[in-house]
Amino acid sequence: MAVGQRSPLPARSTILNLVNLPASHPLIDGRTADSSLIRAYRGDRPSTTPVWFMRQAGRSLPEYRAIRAGSTMLDACLDPELSSEITLQPVRRHGVDAGIFFSDIVVPLKLAGIDVDIVPGRGPVLGAPIRSAADVASLRRLELDALAPIAEGVARAVAGLGTTPLIGFAGAPFTLAAYLVEGGPSKDHLRARTLMHADPATWDALLGWAADVTGAFLRAQVLAGASAVQLFDSWVGSLSVSDYESRVAPFSHQAIAHVTDLGIPVVHFGVGTGELLRSMYAIGVDVMGVDDRIPLDEASRRLGASVPLQGNINPAMLAAPWPVLEAHVRDVITRGRAATSHILNLGHGVPPETDPDVLTRIVQLAHAPSVVHA
Ligand code: CP3
Prior knowledge:
The chain has helices spanning 36-41, 62-68, 73-77, 80-94, 107-111, 133-137, 148-161, 173-182, 190-198, 200-223, 241-247, 249-256, 277-281, 296-303, 322-336, 356-367; strands spanning 99-100, 116-119, 123-126, 166-171, 228-232, 266-269, 287-289, 309-313, 342-346. With 374 residues, it is α/β, with parallel strands linked by helices.
């Protein structure tokens, strides 16, 4: 093979095998199978570009700040009435093409008995970090009953969404381990990156546990009505390709294996993953989420044109004057045409201080007939 040429990645089937979903699931009963999001996730090009935003439910919305007053983040996540209502808020306001279930990547850890809290302005913080073989041996299984508030929140959100698909999500084992090993948010995840080499047996046991906990969280959301899922490996960009492939990817594969038999589209996303895109796709997903550090046409060149792409408006541009932002969004849409299909999104989550009207305007632009579609 010539220098610079890459071996083809294994092709993914675009025919969904949905036999194991309940008859009342929105992909089966006709509500979401032909939605623009699901069509694009399967590699079709619908007549308008589907668009949703990571972190669309949350602090950028005044109605979110109002409904959250007086409850902690984790309490809100475990209250089906609140989690479903917060999930619906951005769909009503912006007219996005998908809801994403309102929760957090550490919720399944909490449900498995981990002492974790979400500290406002900081993020997830553990009572005690999980670092030694004994720490890992003391981890408990996630019992299915514990996921009941998640399943109920999803079911309520799905009922409210009608023909708009709900995306379920979970954190990937490495990003969860970045919190578990550090005991809280960290800049470079150094302790986690040391543990994988210093004590590989403990690392493997920890990631294997995290894969099953986060996989069960994904499965509960799909069975309760989510039409697609996204695996967030937000912090994986701190790894080399070889560390990712040998010490992380098998566990990300193990996590999504919990939903493979359900046949729903799986999206994989991380930040700073330009060098990892092919390895992240190769765990067996359908769609790659791309952050704003590489253009979509370059991501498509690296992955091959048959891979649907999601992304990648620079969140920093949301506060720029509209003509600047509009030109950027049009450029993202144009570059997205390099791929077989494109789902417009940000390169990472909505910053809390974002003017929500700007997000609505982006949705209108994506749906406008004047935007050229392939
Ligand atoms: O606007 C909001 O931030 C709403 C509420 C909230 C969420 N998580 C919702 C969430 C809050 C306060 C958190 C805490 C938290 N958890 C933070 C932010 C710390 C802060 O205050 O700025 C972080 C970084 C975490 C850990 C986490 N949660 C990660 C790494 C991810 C993956 C996505 C990403 O941003 O990289 C999550 C997922 C998450 N948290 C979702 C939601 C609604 C789901 C994904 C989505 O909506 O796109």
